[in-house]
Amino acid sequence: MDELSGAVVDQPTEIAEQPTAEVEQPVEGEPGEEITPEAEPEQQTEEKTDGRTLPKDVQAALKALKEAHPEHAKALEELRKGYFSSRQHGEFFKTPAEARQAKATLDLVGGSEGIANLQSQVAAVELVDTALEAGDPQVLEDIAADFPEGFKKLAGPYLDKLQALAPQTYAQTLQPHTFTAMKAARLGSVLAAIEQAKTGNDVARATDLIGKSLAWYEGQKQQAGSRPKADDPERLKFETERKQFAEEREKTFREDIGRQTVAHQTDQVNRALVPYLKSKALGQEAKSDLLDGVNREIQRLLKADNTYQSQVKALLSAKTRDAAKIVQYINASVAEAAPKAVKAVWGRRYGLAMPAKPAPPTNGAKPVASPAQTGPVKIAAKPSRDQVDWGKTKDILFITNRAFMKSGPYAGKMVTWK
């Protein structure tokens, strides 16, 4: 079974029921959302964190904020630490979803200790592969020591395969063992006794010895035929039933994973669509069609991700597999793919990845916000403090060139300036 009913291999997300997109949860970076800037308190000239200082404009802004509100010094210090922590994460991960996926992958293998164990296992497998390729008999010693019962069961199928693959090598391999078996059965002594009886004209003894030899031969023939062959009907029936049972169990296992991952994907898609749906009114049929396109785009992205495909296949084929860890890994991958899929499908269908911003003013004319505009309106100059609605505008927002207007053509709206 190569595919999972849900979000695993080749068919990453089979959505049984189209998810509804009327989700009210805000998402990070939603247009029109009041954004708290990544600002930090004033830094000393020599103060550095990880060899870096805050940008000068941020330092200036925080200095003004600290002087205006010294009671927030502790909170500003936490913001400063958060700023550098975010910068550090950004050096390795482009998005939080990418970081979550990396964390999920690391957890799957048991952290640093798990990676060390995997490296040891890979090294051991490479040694075995090298020994097998070279025909080193030591590899058989290792297999027999680690898996004695399995080693014994493989002896017959190995000889069958050798006979079909290289008959001459098979005959040469069996010859010393066949002779040893005949010697252990004292066949040479029996043949010598028959020859003596014939020389002495002892017909009765010769006849008795020949009869016993034939009986021994028939016994060997019966024992040789008792080992089940690959095409034995009973064996084939047993193998078919065993395979069907294993397939049913595997199907149930994957369907359970699929239910959890499909629900997660539906949630991720709905969240990513929130800002887009606020910019354009869509009917229910259009929403359903959009969701179908997004889900197919996620499937395409995950199918094209060779690392994801190989990792999921490895997880599903592991001897001791954990459904919860598989779900965690798939969900982390879906969380990273969903926003990309939404952006791509929306752009193809509606021309813009996000709502358009108003064009800059020309000939001194004031900019006019688009009816679909939900983000800050760009204006030519900084507004006076009398024009600002200080009930909605925090000092830190104003310092970063954003404010809600109390009067003028943009009353009630957020504006931004350079």
Can you offer a commentary on this structure?
There is one protein chain. The protein has 418 residues and is mainly alpha-helical. The chain has a domain at 359-418. 63% of the residues lie in helices and 2% in strands. Strands 1-3-2 form a 3-stranded mixed β-sheet. Helix 5 (138-146) packs across helix 6 (148-165), helix 8 packs antiparallel against helix 9 and helix 10 (233-279) crosses helix 13 (323-350). The longest helix has 47 residues, at 233-279. Residues 1-51, 355-359 and 361-373 have low confidence and may be disordered.
Topology:
Layout: H1 56-68, H2 73-92, H3 96-108, H4 111-134, H5 138-146, H6 148-165, H7 167-184, H8 187-199, H9 203-226, H10 233-279, H11 284-304, H12 306-317, H13 323-350, E1 377-378, H14 395-399, E2 402-404, E3 414-416
Helix content, binned percent: 55-70%
Task: Indicate the structural class.
Answer: mainly alpha
Low-pLDDT sequence parts: 1-51, 355-359, 361-373
Rg from C-alpha positions? Answer: 38 Å
Number of helices: 14
% residues in beta strands: under 5%
Order of strands across the widest beta sheet? 1-3-2
Quick check: average pLDDT?
Answer: 76
Number of strands: 3
Q: How many angstroms does the end-to-end distance come to?
A: 59 Å
Q: What is the chain-wise order of helices and strands? A: HHHHHHHHHHHHHEHEE
Largest sheet: 3 strands, mixed
Backbone shape: elongated
